[in-house]
Amino acid sequence: MSEQGKKDDDKPLTLWEMLQSILAAAIGVQSGKNRSRDFSRGKPSHFIILGVAFTLVFVLMIIAVVKLVLHLAGV
């Protein structure tokens, strides 16, 4: 493995990489390469916190869309 590859294996995941993994996992299209990267470089607590936050935002968006549709329908 190259020197750059070894450096990449040691550094923690960036916020953007974790968000990509959370979104990919949410729709079920996570690649094996990214999954192994997540397990080797990521911290479980970060994924749990981001996963709960993503779920909360998703549920709030669904509620907002339903309320908007009901309002526009006059119900």
Describe this protein's structure.
With 75 residues, this protein is mainly α. The chain has four helices and no strands. The model has no long low-confidence stretch (mean pLDDT 89).
Name the helix and strand elements from N-terminus to C-terminus, one letter apiece: HHHH
Helix-residue proportion = over 70%
Compute the number of strand runs: 0
Number of helices: 4
Which residues form runs of ≥5 with pLDDT under 50? none
Biggest pleated sheet: none
Shape: elongated
Compute the separation of the termini in Å.
62 Å
**Whole-angstrom Rg:** 18 Å
Give the rounded overall mean pLDDT: 89
Indicate the proportion of strand residues. under 5%
The secondary-structure class comes to mainly alpha
In a few lines, what is going on in this structure?
This protein is mainly α.
Characteristic key phrases:
single chain; 0% strand; mainly alpha; 75 residues
Give the SSE map.
Blueprint: H1 3-10, H2 15-27, H3 32-41, H4 44-73
Helix pairs in contact: 2-4
